[in-house]
Amino acid sequence: MEMDTCTAEESQQDDRQDTIMPAHTNIKDIKNKSRRAKAFVEMKREKRKKKLQEAKEKKKLAAKLGKNAPAKKQPHTIESLREKDDTMVEEEDEELEHEEANDEYASYFTKSYVPKILITCSDNPHTKTIAFIRELCRIIPGAVPKWRSRSSIKKMVKKATDKGFTDILVVNEDRRIPNGLLVIHLPEGPSALFRLSNPKLCKDIHRDYNEITGHRPEVILNNFRTRLGRVVARMLGALFHYDPEFKGRRVCTFHNQRDYIFFRHHRYEFKNTEKVKLRELGPRFTLRLQWIQQGAFDGDYEWALKRHEMETSRRRFFL
Amino acid sequence: MADNLSKQPRKGILKNSSSFEGNERQREKGTKWDEMNILATLHPKDKDYGHMKIDEPKTPYTKYNEGHSDDEQDGLDADLLAKKIQLGGNELPKALVEPEVEEELSEEESAEEKEKRKIFEMKRKQHYNEYYAVKLARKLMEDDSEEDDDEAEEDESKESAGKDADSAAQSLLQDGSRHQNKHVGRSLLALLRPLLWACCTNMEEPVVSDFNVYVGTETGILKGINLNQKAVIHKNFHKIQALDREQEITSVAWGNEEENEVTLWQSGNNVEINALGKGEFLTRMRQDPTSPSMIATGGKESDLHLWDFSKPEEAIFTAKNVKPDMLELRVPVWITDISYLGDHHSIAISSRHKHIRLYDPKRQRRPTISFEWEDSPLTCISAVPSSNGQVVVGTAHGRLGLFDLRGRKPEEPVHVYKGFAGAVRDVVVHPKQPLVFSVSLDRFLRVHNLASRKLVFKEYLKSRLNCLLVRENLEEMDFIKGANTAKRKMPNQEAKPEAKIKVSKPNNKVTDAEWDSLTI
I need a labelling partner for B468 at 20 to 30 A (CA). Which of A174, B125, B462, B489 fits? Predict the structure, then answer.
């Protein structure tokens, strides 16, 4: 460093010198590693000082102005830069209410039946899938697991309707782990295929499944803002019993973010009105919608993911 | 030296060979069979192996016995046969002889039964000629403006099956001036049981001429869209609370030639189509644009039939199914949509079993072209009016393809229009402009350019869309879509007088149960 300052001074003082040594403006031009490292540390320190000073000044200004302080700038995220979607649902839309009052899930919301779910898997399931199904049966009240026994889905649909089931969940398996979830609403209702990823059982989260009680859980459906998202949310919500038992303090959350639906299962406890303590129980998985069909595994497609056409922009989401 | 040849080795150096002669000797040595024991124990008579007792003979064909003569075997006597042929040579075969009227029966009937039969036949005749009867009734109605009680009740009792239809019908019958007869004359409605009366009385009455695209939804809402002006507006024509799921609009058509009136078909109650045949239900009925008295029908397991109003008892043309496929199985039929081609004598259909077929009714009953496209069911088809054999077909998975059925390779789509996320429910190609209007289950109305495949316009209409109607006088324009398109001022459409909307109730589906319940 001393050499550098000397040369800089010399060059400034001596005007006659034709050659001017270049000043080291870039740290990367310092060939010596230890000096370069030191210069880097210095630069970082300067930067940090500057940042702290700016923050201080901003705070002072905000304190002075009080209410008139300029609003805090929000950082850009992909969600905040999301492409404008025509299908976003506004509250209190008459047409929406009319459609929802008349669709296949209207009877669920009028509490006219108790959902009875049939959970099954593909043929020849492996350990993880079987464990996953067992966990699903614990979290969803009224779920009945059955072996697949090589039955086709259309026949399964018929038989299940006869026996009084209201929904079917088929867990698909690939490479020894569950990777797909097919939800079929029974009396001719819509069916949806989800791709299931990152499944974690209770023991993977180091929890004991015996902590899960039999109380009916509450269901939270977060961030389903478009029309399609609403359809999916209704479908997932209708798997659970309509009246939760608040005494059990159990909650199942389906949180949608960037078209991925994250499922979490917690027990909560309110310490006071603002603070909540959460203990995660139970399995955890993420879903991604592949398609929705209008019939029970046959019929026209209401929405189908076509990657080449739809995944054109990183800021475009459908749910 | 010679001695050595005759010598035998002391211990046998030869290994056990597998030649025949050797084996027999070995078997004889090694295994001994106890025949008596075998007879006693193998297949003992009192043992039940659990086999099924089969009563049938092993082969359907009896064995050829050489002893009998050929004539008796076949059951035919050649001489006898020859004589019979000679005798009956000039007569027509039984199938072509028209059955004579059986008068014997009528003689045996009593007077009462005769009466009953006559009444029954009269009713049947009325029923078959109901189109004319209703037309007549309408005229009479208009003549005397208050409802003639008998006729009104008669009409209503024939038509309405729902209670609200009754009340609505009453109210509309009373304002007789609203209905125009020419509507009956032209539209598809003519053959249907005239459930003409509005299903909801509290319907708004906007001016029909403002909109140039009409879309019907699954929840029963009719929407009008105006694509001309700078702001695209769409408006619902109904008050939403009055509707329910029963009133899903399944088809929309122009009510009259000036495209003033819009007729809606809503799924609901009975439809009277004069002969359904053996199919399960009908899904589509289309009127020939060139000759208004001809219609085509098709449905599930009900192949294409062409009907003429003047002969309502029997189809003029019934299509024949294609030959069985390579597994010798019958090819199933489920027609979803029918379209008359631009050259006025062919009909193209799309099927839920992925078939696209072209029929030429004057030439043959089998389809002239039949091929499959895509893995998903085809939901709609529409002819390109300006061309000679081009059709646009939509699938349940969200693809829309343009086919040239008269071209060299009809199986390959000329163009595929993209951008759909859900099933395409209805397609209309504009008669003059190169535009394809499509309506899909993902709640969007899309307009593509026919040749360039570009998406020209897209609009979100909140409900699931079912059917579509486009005005003929829609001008070419750049629809508002993003900054690149130029906004041009469009000439205003002249406001058409007397724009009214007629809402009607019949549907296109007839189930077997309903069919049985209809009286002959």
Answer: B489
